[in-house]
Amino acid sequence: MAARVIDGKAFAATVRGKVAEQVAALKAKGVTPGLAVVLVGEDPASQVYVRSKGKQTVEAGMHSVEKRLPATASEEEVLAVVAALNADPAIHGILVQLPLPKQVGEAKVLAAIDPAKDVDGFHISNVGLLGTGQKAMVPCTPLGCLMLLRDLHGSLSGMEAVVIGRSNIVGKPMAQLLLGDSCTVTIAHSRTMDLPAVVRRADIVVAAVGRPEMVKGDWLKPGATVIDVGINRTPTESGKDRLVGDCDYASCAEVAGAITPVPGGVGPMTIACLLANTLTACCRANGLPEPE
Ligand code: NDP
């Protein structure tokens, strides 16, 4: 039986709609959530993401600020922008678009963001809070994956989850979130032996690898839920790039119980969660009850 297609685009629209409603309620109390995005340099993919984030922030009714610095900006200049945003009471969320030019230390810049405004959840304080099961700012992409999984399954308790990839921005926080929901979690990576056999025991597979169509249908336990985080551009004969995930969609959809498509699966959830995190940060900053 063909897998159920998890419509991340529609789910993300619902999340954004709920955020917009809550923003409107806050504004009626005189509080407007504000999100600042810092972009250093002219990386084309980053420019697209930043534009999209700005547009959706405004659509949700929030205050949106974009700070652009040239690719030649020094680390001190970037740190000065972050410090000004930390001190700005109209800004509740700060996101520094990665990657940064090589003269700007990523770890140093991320560490300089006020953890309460760290809506990407990359600050070491938030990483530690998440790792110890405390209230944290949770990285947007894994949070989006968790929301899709909870929506599909309700409780994830006792399920076998395999996360492929151990990056700080996706794989590791994803594993922490699944553990927090009482899954039995395995983290696989490039040194994992016999990856297909590891994946085959999973009820939930999260692929965050960056290798086009790597996970094949015959690696899956029948009925498994597949969350494909990968976004890979592959050339086609027409010369136009095609977006594919880390999972071979055609073969996986034949075996899985449910699967996210690429595009239209996890991707749209990332910005929706960024907006949700900004709303949460704003509520916490103002001592207001947090959104559900
Ligand atoms: P990284 O390159 O930082 O990490 C990739 C991980 O995959 C590493 O842990 C690596 O292992 C592992 N890996 C690489 N090759 C293999 C292999 N052959 N078998 C098993 N594991 C392997 O990537 P990210 O986590 O940043 O991103 C992963 C994917 O998700 C990318 O396609 C990216 O574009 C996409 N992405 C999508 C987002 C969205 O909004 N939907 C947001 C962020 C990322 P090791 O550690 O051993 O090297």
From TrEMBL:
Pathway: One-carbon metabolism; tetrahydrofolate interconversion. SUPFAM superfamilies: Aminoacid dehydrogenase-like, N-terminal domain, NAD(P)-binding Rossmann-fold domains. One of its GO terms (biological process) is L-histidine biosynthetic process. NADP(+) binds at G165, R166, S167, I231. The keyword Oxidoreductase applies. It comes from the Bacteria. Keywords: Amino-acid biosynthesis, Histidine biosynthesis, Hydrolase, Methionine biosynthesis, Multifunctional enzyme, NADP, One-carbon metabolism, Oxidoreductase, Purine biosynthesis. Its EC number is 1.5.1.5, 3.5.4.9. The keyword NADP applies. One of its GO terms (molecular function) is methenyltetrahydrofolate cyclohydrolase activity. It catalyses: (6R)-5,10-methylene-5,6,7,8-tetrahydrofolate + NADP(+) = (6R)-5,10-methenyltetrahydrofolate + NADPH; (6R)-5,10-methenyltetrahydrofolate + H2O = (6R)-10-formyltetrahydrofolate + H(+). Pfam families: THF_DHG_CYH (PF00763), THF_DHG_CYH_C (PF02882). Residues 139-284 form the Tetrahydrofolate dehydrogenase/cyclohydrolase NAD(P)-binding domain. One of its GO terms (cellular component) is cytosol. Residues 6-120 form the Tetrahydrofolate dehydrogenase/cyclohydrolase catalytic domain. PANTHER family: C-1-TETRAHYDROFOLATE SYNTHASE, CYTOPLASMIC, C-1-TETRAHYDROFOLATE SYNTHASE, CYTOPLASMIC-RELATED. Belongs to the tetrahydrofolate dehydrogenase/cyclohydrolase family. Homodimer. Catalyzes the oxidation of 5,10-methylenetetrahydrofolate to 5,10-methenyltetrahydrofolate and then the hydrolysis of 5,10-methenyltetrahydrofolate to 10-formyltetrahydrofolate. This is Bifunctional protein FolD. The lineage of its organism: Bacteria, Pseudomonadati, Pseudomonadota, Alphaproteobacteria, Rhodobacterales.
